[in-house]
From TrEMBL:
Keywords: Cytoplasm, Hydrolase, Membrane, Metal-binding, Metalloprotease, Protease, Transmembrane, Transmembrane helix, Zinc. Binds 1 zinc ion. Belongs to the peptidase M3 family. GO terms for molecular function: metal ion binding; metalloendopeptidase activity. It is found in: Cytoplasm. Its cofactor is Zn(2+). The chain crosses the membrane at residues 20-43. This is Peptidase M3A/M3B catalytic domain-containing protein. It comes from Brassica campestris. One of its GO terms (biological process) is proteolysis. CDD domains: M3A_TOP.
Amino acid sequence: MSEDDEGNEKKTQGSNPKKLKLVTFTGAAGLLGLAVSFAIFAFNSHKQKSKKKCLPGCDSVCINLSAKEILDLADEIISKSTRVHDAVALVPLNKLSYENVVLPLAELEARLLPLIQCCVVPKMISPLDNVRKASAEAEMKIDAHLLSCREREDVYRVIRIYAAKGESIAPDAKCYLQCLVRDFEDNGLNLTTTKREEVGRLKDEIDELSSRYVQNLNEDSSCLFFTEAELAGLPVEFLQSLDKTQSKEFKLTLESSHVAAILELCKIAKTRKTVAMAYGKRCGDANIPVLQKLVQSRHRLARLLGYAHFADYALDHRMSKTSTTVIRFLEGISSSLTDLAIREFSILKDLKRKEEGELPFGVEDLLYYIKRVEELQFDLDFGDIRQYFPVSLVLSGIFKICQDLFGIKIEEVTETDVWYYDVQAFAVFDSGSGKLLGYFYLDMFTREGKFSHSCVVSLQNNALFSNGACQIPVALLIAQFSKDGSGEALPLGFSEVVNLFHEFGHLVQHICNRASFARFSGLRVDPDFREIPSQLLENWQCYESFTLKLISGYRQDITKPLVDEVCKTLKRWRYSFSALKSLQEILYCLFDQRIYSDDDVDFGQLIRSLHPKVMVGLPVVEGTNPASCFPRAVIGSEATCYSRLWSEVFAADIFASQFGDGHPNLYMGLQFRDKVLAQGGGKEAMELLTSFLGREPSTQAYIESRTKYGL
């Protein structure tokens, strides 16, 4: 998801691929330059035939292609990429150089990314079913091709021999070369044929086991039946949404939305426990053996690739580096929050005793009593607060904070084609020099067929080419806001405001990343760092500099003291029971880390040991085992579940030490933009943060923020 640019209009126009004066190479490298040039020219010709109006200077970014254009472009991408790799493979071994081995692949990657995104992003956003289907088909074809490129022995041989020469090249170029080598060696190309085949077999097995685990959960049809009395506390609308039996019992599935409603709102302790037990036992007989085999297969794969355990492999190129560091990080925060968590737990137990007598307090009671205490302690009507956050006002407020904080100027671009009538496009400029930094699209509202989650997607990454031309970043923010029956945007809930701040953090990161290689620009940074800018920007959503401005601007009849109180209450609410909530997350992060850093782990014994230790004495729900229903540890975040918390902790350190008063500080914002965001993924993220802070990042600010605003 992200990029760099040169910025002034002349150089932006100069990046038009048809006008590129590629470096002249001889032999195979000359063929390579021709292949890249032809690939881009072919796309632009295709775009002109379709008469698409793209963003100025970004002719390769055209998301509203037809189904046929998408499939044709996918074929062109594959064809031209193959020619480039063929050309690299043909370079004589006695004539290898940076210019004919590394540079061609780097520039190909930079130029093909926006073309690939033109093919694959429409499946997420196009209003046309045939376009979404064509996009999904194109994605499968392109993914298969890219995988095959990383399995080419002839290309790997050339890259490996060139790397072994130890030629003096720029630090970011050296980092890119190391990434190229790793691309191939992660597929076992540095191993014997027998071991390489085993790597392929294990990867296939891991894919099959992961899919089976998730499929088992998706296909689980378990359900429970309750009387209306057993569901006391649930809203009438929720009950009306449930099926009923002939005996007038309500049928409750184990979908997460149903389970969350019960655990948060149901007044009956027995019902909460029954649901929690059933939810925690899902797919136990089927999935626990699957996860056991999956963990073993991942360990075997890691050992073939030179690591002791899978966690070592997964963490080797992240900020954390080692499983020991991750476990120390998690246990350190857990220990620091324990006293606060005990105080929070005491409040919950006291309230349960008042309302339910001497029934023992279980994990299944946490959500319900947290919500009850919040209702009693915070005078917040979130329905009323919503009226203060119309979408247009929130956007203008976020734009203002980003401009004041990072020294940028955001202007709407109206003369460009979009894929749906309410999509908007914006240009981002450096407010000091007026230099164009990049563009972004906002696709803010739900509609049929659209991707159902909020995210930021890279459409084009920043890149600097050998002829001096620059490619500027372009990003897309997808949100899921609602409209009323007349098509007017509904005001945002507070959680939606927080989420929008978070995603804008990704946008700023994408636009401000000035790395010369597309591999390191945009959001292609250390995964442990990727969420830090977003977590950092979230801090402004409940500070007076934002909330006060919006509320007082929208409702002139409200007095300032009342507005101040709303801001303070929102801040306290946001951090309420944060220690217990953090410990719950740490529990699962530790479980994930332990199973991937040790051999032959007994999942049941591990969770029975960890749970009371982390959760201030609370035992695991009887008979449950998260190993059967913990998909994050299976696909997507295996051995890396800690990463979200890692980002949040270090974002808290940055905010407290550099922006502690909550007001946008342009000087520090520019320092963060230039010293951290602009550097991209080609430099060690921990070194960047240490340089910016003047010391190593600390967990102390995160702990103190929880203590300061805690109950």
